[in-house]
Amino acid sequence: MGNSMSASFAPECTELKKTYDSCFNEWYSEKFLKGKSVENECTKEWYAYIGCVNENLKKKSIQSALDDARKEAPFESGGELVNANANANANKK
Amino acid sequence: MKLFENKYDFDYPWEQVTAANWQKYPNEVATHVVGVDVLRRELKDNGNVLVSERLLTVQQKVPRWIMMVLGGSNISYVREVSTVNLKEKSLKLRSCNLNYVNLLRVYEMVDYIPHPEDPYNKTLFSQQAQITAGGKFGKLVNTLEDWSIQRFCDNAAKGKAGFDSVLRSLWEEHWDNNSLVIKVNETVDDLGLQMSKRVTEMNAAAEAVIKESLRKFTILTDYQDLFTEAFDDAKNPH
């Protein structure tokens, strides 16, 4: 079966990712789901991991595709398409 | 543009399904997802809403003719924004491919909510995808959209089977006694013989899926004349 935690897209970030994921998964089940959390607690692990990710995003040249996708479906709107056409179609049953 | 829709029940409580969502990959069935990264994550609304942006790394078996057209690697990326809302009890996933968007764009919407008929024990999963092929390749477009719908159906079935197996192992070992759900690894080791039996069953299921997609691959190769023609058209526009 091997390791059951997923790898990072950049191999050098995988260990940092696993450390962060462990912390997050525990926080999610033990605090977030129980409504006991007002802040995301794994900040130390997060910054170590996201630093590695951002560095490698540029290297892998997926940054521009990512920027386009972010414009089309912003994080702030929960990833919903900003294009009204697409939304109209999505609501069709 | 084509639409794809799907609904499933999961025999697990909503809370648990959302926790397992973070640990969905890797699993034995959906082997095409080889990496998952979190790019941004914010807690909002006094700790009631969690929004995450993830990058999924996908290694896909792509028909040879697509590789020919795209001339690229079989690694592609998907961006996903998910929202867990504790008050509404909903988990929404919104995903789109990052590669070849001009050629083929798949926007997927997945919602997990407590099942209306059994909200404490079951979760209702609904999935919708808009598949749009770019106009550039003329005659290819319909075939490409159909192929994608097919591929999407295959992967949707694989996704369900894979997620079921993750939910099962999390449930049996950890959720019941309220301990950490993060130790999937150890769970699998502990389950020992029982698990290997299950893996055998999973493999059989995966094999069936592979056989099915091979059959489809064969059907696709029958269209080769069409692809060659369309490819020539694209190279020499009228």
UniProtKB/TrEMBL annotation, chain A:
Pfam hit, one: UPF0203
Q: Does the keyword Disulfide bond apply?
A: yes
One GO term of the biological process aspect: phospholipid translocation
A molecular function (GO) term: phosphatidic acid transfer activity
**Membrane spanning residue stretches:** none
Disulfide bond in keyword set? yes
Region (Disordered) residue spans? 74-93
Q: Which UniProt keywords apply?
A: Disulfide bond
Q: Which GO terms describe its cellular component?
A: cytosol; mitochondrial intermembrane space; nucleus
Amino acid composition bias (Low complexity), ranges on this chain: 83-93
Identify its protein family: Belongs to the TRIAP1/MDM35 family.
Q: What's the protein name?
A: Similar to Saccharomyces cerevisiae YKL053C-A MDM35 Mitochondrial intermembrane space protein
TrEMBL record, chain B:
Q: What is the lineage of its organism?
A: Eukaryota, Fungi, Dikarya, Ascomycota, Saccharomycotina
Which organism is this entry from? Answer: Maudiozyma barnettii
The identity of this protein, by name, is PRELI/MSF1 domain-containing protein
Every PRELI/MSF1 domain range: 1-175
Cellular component per GO?
A: mitochondrial intermembrane space
List the InterPro entries.
PRELI/MSF1_dom, Slowmo/Ups
